[in-house]
User: Fold these one by one.
Assistant:
Number 1:
Amino acid sequence: MRALLRLTWLEIKIFVREPMGVVGTMGIPVAVFLIASRLVGPRVAREAVQSGGAATAMLPVLASLLMALSAVSSLVTIVSIYREGGILKRLRATPLSPTVILSAHVLVKLIFTVLTLAIMLILGRRYIPPGAQVPVLSYGVALTFTTWAILSIGFLIASIVPTARFAQPLAALILYPMVAVSGLFFPVDVLPQWMRLAARLLPLGYAVSLLDGIWRGEGWAAHLGDVAALTLFFAVLTAVSSRVFRWE
Amino acid sequence: MSFDVEEGEIFGLIGPNGAGKTTTMECVEGLRRPDRGTISVLSLDPIRDARALQQKVGVQLQQAQLQKRIKVREAVDLWASLYPRAVDADALLERLGLSDKRQAWFMTLSGGQKQRLFIALALIHDPDVVLLDELTTGLDPQARRAIWDLVREMRTRGKTVLLTTHLMEEAERLCDRVAIVEHGHIIDIGTPAGLVRRHCPGQTVVLETTDATAPGHFDAIPAVESIAWLDSQCTIRGSGGDLVTQVIQCLAEHRIRVTNFKTELPNLEDVFLTLTGHSIRE
């Protein structure tokens, strides 16, 4: 446990030493949220007030999803760079257990995801309609949980990418189509049959449903199914990854 | 493949790239499961007793890297924190000539500095056995010599060193004993000098003289097998340890005046050529 915290802290320091990585992980989702809020926020807020005061969840959920996906993509890249450079191998030749090494990276990603969310909420406060009760703490927990579950896709991709150069494009190729069937842009019900099936098998639909629901203040009890689906998804993918994961 | 490394010696696995040196090393390190056979390190099994062995064995892996932006001192501190006992980090970095690089990022280090850092990481927990895989590959001669001194110092401190190299000079200068590896087999094991004596007993003396009587005198030396002349340069080949002495005695006895005199002794490179029929560089 001490080793995990130590390694996590070290990886955080190493991460912030690369400015581009920080901009990519934290800057872009925040910028997307702020720009989009500025463009469409007032109108949506007005409609929300008219329709009874429920805060719209689309923008925060989109930004959150971007954060989670960029965390996955960055995890894939880091793991593949570490593998290609022999860093994973060198770490493995120490008393550090593989679980600790990977957990440290997951923790780093989660910490930065929460940090990004906090910045987003602080900077975007004025776009949240007045009177809307957003359960910020609950939403933070939901986002952390979702990111954690989705990071298992990162493990799987990281297990199969041959080199670091393929990591980013492959991650994008796998991740972004998932957004299309996540229900974020179109309700899942209007999609063709096969896409609806894909939506049920892929995690992002559950992620969107959970984040959206919590943002609207629906409470966890209404989304136990989403939590269960995401947990199952994490368990299966992590199990598969641990079978096929290559250290070098 | 079968070999024993004695306590306190520097033992080298030598052979061309692809001979199986690193594979062997990784099996010893516990990073790779051997297809068959048994390995015992300090009476422990590298895979089964990995935990216990990690405390007693220090490793340097071939072509390893660290995080680009990790600082030297951070890496050493992290490693130190992973073991129940650790040597003083500052003193270790001082000994390895890395004191002024403590705050430097890994990516800014030179090849020699990186290797010295990896040596620091291998030694941080004061292991009894040190495993070094292609320690000086890619380093310039000066950095290489500095690293050799460090390895000799490990032996002075009572550590047992197992290393791999494809550099015959490195093996000759550093190792107490070597095993010549090719295609996953050990061809022979011995001290570098012993292997040379065993497989390449021939010696060569090259000298320059304008004395016209010299060839006749050289012919009479018992150890001489062949003589070749090129202008005033004479190449004398023979076998047995006495060739050089006999040539010198002959020169003195007949007062032959020479303007140049050198001996060419076979080395591990020649041993490898003799044993495998091809040069190690091919």
Number 2:
Amino acid sequence: MAITAQEQLSFPGRSRRVHKIIRDIKMNKGLYLMILPPLVYLFVFQYIPMYGVIMAFQDFSFRLGYFGSDWVGLKHFEWLLNNPAFMNAFFNTLKINFLRVVVGFPMPIILALMINEVRHRRYKRTVQTLSYLPYFISWVVLAGIFHNLLARDYGAVNGVLAGLGLSRIDFLQDPAVFPWTLVLTEIWRTVGWGSIIYLATIATISTTLYEAAEVDGASRFQQIRYITLPALRPTMIVILIINIGNVLRVGFDQVFNLYNPLVYETGDIIQTYIVRSFSVNPNFSRLTAAGFLQSLLGMLLLLGANELIKRIRDGEGLY
Amino acid sequence: MSWRKFSIADVGIYIALAIFCFMTLYPFWSIIVISFSTPEAYYSNQFHFIPTSFTLEAYEYNFAEPQLLRSFAVSVIVTAVGTANSLFWTMIVGYFVSRRGLAFTSLVFTLFLITFFFDGGLVPNFVLIRQLGLRNTLLALILPFTINPFFLILMKNYFANRPREIEEAATIDGASEFVILFRIIAPTAKPILATIGLFYAVYYWNDWFWPMIYISDRSLYPMALYLRNLVSHASTVSVDPGIVNTQNPATIRAAAIVITILPIILVYPFAQRYFVHGIMLGSSKE
């Protein structure tokens, strides 16, 4: 914001600034009154639980509360890092999300490029409309559907495989296959939704670029390669960073509704580990420590991804 | 763009997209077919593409369970009240943080943005709800989700991009901020309100996780949680054992799934034209 001449003159003057703020509040009384309830909400429902994360360093009990419970330092973290089930979930989280980002990232771009080549408007709009639909359906429902579709003996997908003379695949119970089941069903759900942003970016590209390319004799493939893809690059980078930063918080709904004890070995992730322990044998402090480790990892991934992109693009990160 | 010949590549793309549409729709279609199938037909066919039988038994069975109707009602209430509450407050905060020249706008926006990156997680939230005495109340499914920071950003960008002359004129005429926001600004912000309202509604309708944590009284289960229990404990559906023996749980589950997604499928064709537009309006920065 530009500094006005008056502000420069009255600099620094702390009491002046306080005075200004009071005048600001008086002048906009209505606005500040309206914002009061949301601030109370923010404090109670967001910041108190955030403060509650300190129980990861305590032996929390309801009787003693956040202020009375004993401090135990890193005890719970040590327990978790030495616990095979947690470490299994920890590495699965990384593996599954790595697959999800690497395999899933190009799919919406490919879909957007294909939809963009369609010239019949009605067909184009129909494809787009249908492609967003799965995004709005919860994993509880989708899990119910996929349990039918992917079942080993009665499922339609295995029916097709058997019809083609291939061997049946136990998508939901074979530990070696289960991570791929997660990745593929997630792509199925989100590919259309993910393509919206790319289609919107494509729509902003000036048509004169394509016309000039055509005059110069560029093929359609060359037009995509040298005009469309470079124009999509900034969007791709932003989406990639967001995807990497989000990896640790997405996926819970999906895994929790699709997995079963047979595939814990490859399918259990940190969040499912936490929720399962919560309902079986809740040690509140320990589970909060597990959640804290997950947030920490997510933060590191986000910062790391941004740093990497910065290096690649000569100092041009997302933030 | 000049007219090009419809080439082999075009044919390939049209066919690939047709297959894509089929793959998107087929899972939903098959579950609808199963829900109207007799148990015998269900077992004799594994594709469920072309209906080979028709019966309403699975639906009759589901609607005979009083909890299904109660859960449906709970979901309708939570979705309606939750969406209205969220939309109201998100609009107020979005309007506040989009205003320039106020002392606290950027501070308030930052405080909300932080919640986008950090949250307390499962246990501290559970502890809070328990200590507030909100367990086994529908308020626990509404209040904590009042303002979603992502939708707040969309709302703020929308307000920040619109012309200010009208509200400035209204301010000079002595209208209060509240009147300006709800009489003058809200009616012109319909696309973004429709978009964000839709997203909130889908969130409240689909949520099963927090109900699972906060609600232990079965009569207060929303539809999504009711369905989850039905789907994951398919073999233990309570009721008269005679019915369980003659009925096929798979068709019953399918019918419950169709009942759960029906509201979304019905609203979707009308809502989808808003949300693409609204997302674009909100995602452009000033």
